[in-house]
Amino acid sequence: QVQLVESGGGLVQAGGSLRLSCAASGRTAGNYSIGWFRQAPGKEREFVAVINWSGSSIFYDTSVKGRSTISRDNAKNTVYLQMNSLKAADTAVYYCAAAGTFGIRPHDYDYWGQGTQVTVSS
């Protein structure tokens, strides 16, 4: 079992930055790829970024590539998503999830956090 807790969301003006954190617990938490997804009201959950267990493989959705950086600190069992140049379209609930594979689809993931709200005002 892996437990995930997101933090760092909030209200920010367009053009601003936020750093989301995903704290993982569980004996094998460090062995999982961690992905970030987001879901806006009335829309499906969509992929944002993923990092594998060692940090050697990273992939971003085109909507955030160049504006966001995913990283992990396995000593702290924490994955970060730094988001810059935020836009109103980035407004959503952001979820982190853990998977045994390096996936970009929600059903690739076995464990999910409760989500953190990001609101970007224009």
By helix and strand content, what is the structural category?
A: mainly beta
Approximate strand percentage: over 45%
Q: Specify the helix fraction band.
A: under 10%
Provide a count of the helices: 0
Mean pLDDT: 95
Strand tally is: 11
pLDDT under 50 segments (min length 5)?
Answer: none
Q: What does the main sheet amount to?
A: 7 strands, mixed
Secondary-structure element string: EEEEEEEEEEE
CA(first)-CA(last) distance: 40 Å
Shape: globular
Could you tell me the radius of gyration in angstroms?
13 Å
Kindly describe this structure.
- By secondary structure, the protein is mainly beta.
- The protein is 0% helix and 50% strand.
- The protein has no helices and eleven strands.
- Strands 2, 4, 5, 6, 9, 10 and 11 form a seven-stranded mixed beta sheet that branches. A four-stranded antiparallel beta sheet has the order 1-3-8-7, with no helix packed on it.
- The model has no long low-confidence stretch (mean pLDDT 95).
Briefly summarize what is shown:
This protein is an all-beta fold. The protein is built from no helices and eleven strands.
